[in-house]
Amino acid sequence: MSENPLRLGVLISGSGTNLQAIIDAIEEGALDARIEIVISSRPSAYGLVRAEQAKIKTMALNKDTYSDPEAADRLIVKALQEAQVDYVVMAGYMRMVRTPILEAFPNRVLNLHPALLPSFKGAHAIDDAYAYGVKVTGITVHFANEDYDCGPIIAQRALSVEEGWSANQLEEHIHELEHKLYPEVLQMLAEGRIHVQDDGRVRIDQR
């Protein structure tokens, strides 16, 4: 790890497998970053256990807190700013990030979507793609903005859907791709290679 690793705040809601992939990449030396805080929208999320095992600071919100979504996001912003994070990483975070977070971290909030955007937006992308019978799907890493699943695309990775796969098998393969691509994108950020241009498109510098 360098003297100035990328400082991350990770937002989760569930089991935290992508969080674990990021933790593993850091420990293996493949990602020059440090996770400063993990924030969960659910106190029971297993991802909090993963964070605690890795000795990462955690914070848990609950559905009562989200009764006022803007107030919840202001709490999140306060915690992220106190942790002095460079980027906010949504890793299975099932709440929409709103203006307080987006304004505090412009073009610094990343989301991972389990489809090739702009196809199959929304919370059920894998099932929707499977039901449609697509032969190729994949994953997208993008910057979040005010429009759900519409922010500038950073990277995509395609997946051929094999005949006979169940929806669960497709989901497993999607997750395998996610666990590889997300840390790779974060490393590109750590290297300063990702830029949002004036036209809203993302440019990635070559090594």
Description:
The protein has six helices and nine strands; from the N terminus they run βαβαβαβαβαββαββ. Helix 1 (17-27) packs across helix 6 and helix 5 (125-132) packs across helix 6 (167-190). The longest helix is centred in the last third of the chain and has 24 residues, at 167-190. The chain has helices spanning 17-27, 46-53, 69-82, 99-104, 125-132, 167-190, and strands at residues 6-12, 33-40, 57-60, 87-90, 109-113, 136-143, 153-160, 194-196, 202-204. 34% of the residues lie in helices and 24% in strands. A seven-stranded mixed beta sheet has the order 3-2-1-4-5-6-7, sandwiched between helices. It has one domain (6-204): 3-Layer(aba) Sandwich (Rossmann fold). It has 207 residues and is of the alpha/beta class.
List keywords for this structure.
9 strands, two-stranded antiparallel sheet, 34% helix, 207 residues, alpha/beta, 7-stranded mixed sheet, 24% strand
Mean pLDDT: 97
- Computed over alpha carbons, the radius of gyration is 17 Å
CATH homologous superfamily, by name? Formyl transferase, N-terminal domain
Helical content (DSSP H or I, runs of 4+): 25-40%
Give the strand line-up of the largest sheet.
Answer: 3-2-1-4-5-6-7
Structural class: alpha/beta
Largest sheet, strands/sense/barrel? 7 strands, mixed
Q: Give me the CATH fold name.
A: Rossmann fold
The count of strands amounts to 9
**Distance between the ends:** 18 Å
CATH top level label = Alpha Beta
Unreliable residue runs: none
**How many separate structural domains?**
1
